[in-house]
């Protein structure tokens, strides 16, 4: 018989209060159980160990006031995990570009996931929670891909998170990205309306497909180089990989994109010094949940990308 001398969290039922209205169930479970891997949380949900109102639910389910959760027993020593390393904690602290009573906005570095999972032990949210103090209760308002840098909003409380989700759902937020696309974009402005769907055989790959979710992206050409174009991108809808898939669908994929990009051009630009995907969440504009006033924040490009653009400028002289 297996001996277990560690702390055990027994099976129990929890009724959701107003404080957790609108919170994703996977985030709630991570906060409730503490230091256990996100993979274990997903396993609980996938196998039906966690029940909401006596039924199974997905990780994306948003809790409602009055929901009854049935939670399984968990032995904490069976689910060991280490805190985010100190260098990552320091990196996310250094990336803060705005903070008030309700939110924090960071200039997310490329190469870091927003949360653990899919083989990644730690992300932005785990780093902040490891720092502790006022950062321990932060919640992700939205997401950025691992290799995308730029503006990322985190809420300091569930009520603020709920307000920001309402703002996003109503479309009262503007998102502008900067991207370097393959090839010379001919038009100064292009509006792309193409529906997007997950690939049945691989849900991590998105394709343009009729009958999918509506998606609208507006490309504004800024600078044309020998075989690349710098663009600003207005994201009208916020679908997974939207900019990356829409740009590929018009024959101008994002340079450095290993999933949807041009491998030959990526290799060529890597030799020139582009070591990452050139996609950056440049600007956010929305109504502040604290003041109710219009608020705009801009995240500068990292020096490596600025230096790379300076290098490309020699191609057009």
Chain-averaged pLDDT: 88
Please report the total strand number as a whole number: 17
By secondary-structure content and strand pairing, the structural class works out as: alpha+beta
Q: Based on CA inertia axes, which overall geometry fits?
A: globular
Would you identify the CATH H-level superfamily of the largest domain?
Pseudouridine synthase
**What is the C-alpha radius of gyration, as a whole number of Å?**
21 Å
The percent of residues in helical segments reads 10-25%
Report strand %: 25-35%
Number of helices: 8
Biggest pleated-sheet summary? 10 strands, mixed
Order of helices and strands: EEHHEEEHEEHEEHEEEEEEHHEEH
Unreliably modeled segments: 1-5
Give the total of domains: 3
End-to-end span in angstroms? 76 Å
CATH topology of the largest domain: Pseudouridine synthase
> What is the architecture of the largest domain at the second tier of CATH?
2-Layer Sandwich
Using the coordinates above, name the CATH class of the largest domain. Alpha Beta
